[in-house]
Design brief:
By secondary structure, this protein is of the alpha/beta class. The chain has one domain. The protein has eleven helices and nine strands. The strands form two sheets. The chain has a seven-stranded mixed beta sheet with strand order 1-9-8-2-5-3-4, sandwiched between helices. Strand 6 and strand 7 form a beta hairpin. The N and C termini lie far apart (about 40 Å). The model has no long low-confidence stretch (mean pLDDT about 90).
């Protein structure tokens, strides 16, 4: 309840602060929070340490702290911009985000089976979804549930202000299937197993529980998977990248197809996270130290 009240207060105050001052305040807030002994700070440092160790044997604590602080700053600015969404026009959002790879979107749309947009908690994901509304691409986002329900409803109301639709994780698949049948897009995160139904797969050199929902949905509906990433730049402009669509053909071995399809997505995630580690906003543990259950 306290988080809900804090968000409602921020939603009232933030739009009344000049943006130049607001962005500076968010940077200062991130620096202060980075000094606190919070579980989220420990988690992001552990996740980034694993990313760096996958590239080399050791990563200095100083480097990990620097990247973690930058990731925290990017995350807080994302929340700041979330409260600005009702006050930013689609035209302004379009001016803030430059998209590369529209031909890949058109290629996926030509299949007329809908689109499964996959991304990570990466870069400026709040504005990423809004840009689809500018180009009149209907998107239904499968969102992590938040407690209490009023908190979920308020956050999704901000994100839906320009036309996005939201479905909580674990609810009926009917709205998702209906959107795909209408050749619309469905958005799913590929780096956080919010539903608990993921698979243990290698990710940056260690087994992690990875969500497989995008691949299962693609195999069952025939919809192509379209990986997308939005990279925040220093001036708060963003570069959006639409990767080539992934068309999956069932082999008859569903579990193998799920694992292989998910590993193709993971390869793209690793590529972007390696290039921009401070843009991966992973504030929950990704690698469970206990590892997968033994049988």
């Amino acid at each position: 309840m306290l988080k809900y009240i804090a968000f409602r207060l921020a939603g009232f105050v933030v739009p009344r602060i000049p943006q130049r001052i607001g962005y500076a305040l968010m940077g200062a807030l991130a620096w202060v929070i980075s000094l606190l002994p919070l579980a989220a700070n420990r988690a992001v440092m552990a996740n980034l340490r694993q990313v760096l160790r996958a590239e080399r044997a050791e990563a200095s604590d100083q480097e990990v702290r620097r990247l973690a602080r930058a990731a925290l700053r990017n995350n807080i600015i994302n929340y700041y911009e979330l409260f600005l969404l009702p006050h930013i026009s689609l035209e302004e959002i379009h001016q803030r985000v430059t998209i590369h790879g529209w031909e890949n979107l058109h290629r996926a749309q030509a299949a007329a089976r809908g689109l499964i947009l996959t991304t990570a908690h990466f870069g400026n994901f709040n504005l990423a979804g809004q840009i689809a509304s500018y180009y009149r691409v209907p998107v239904t986002v499968v969102a992590e549930d938040l407690e209490p329900p009023r908190f979920y409803e308020y956050v999704t109301s901000l994100r839906a202000i320009h036309g996005l639709k939201f479905v909580p994780v674990g609810q009926s698949l009917r709205p998702i299937v209906r959107a795909l049948r209408a050749n619309e897009a469905v958005g799913l995160a590929a780096d956080r197993d919010a539903s608990g139904g993921g698979e243990w797969l290698p990710f940056f050199g260690r087994l992690a529980r990875i969500p497989v929902g995008p691949v299962k949905l693609a195999l069952r509906t025939g919809a192509p998977i379209l990986p997308c990433f939005v990279v925040r730049e220093a001036n708060h402009h963003c570069q959006g990248y639409i990767e080539e669509p992934i068309f999956l053909t069932p082999s008859g071995d569903f579990q193998r197809d799920v694992r292989e399809g998910t590993q193709r997505i993971l390869a793209l995630l690793e590529r972007y996270i390696r290039a921009y580690p401070d843009q991966w906003l992973a504030f929950q543990p990704v690698w469970d130290n206990t590892g997968p259950p033994t049988t």
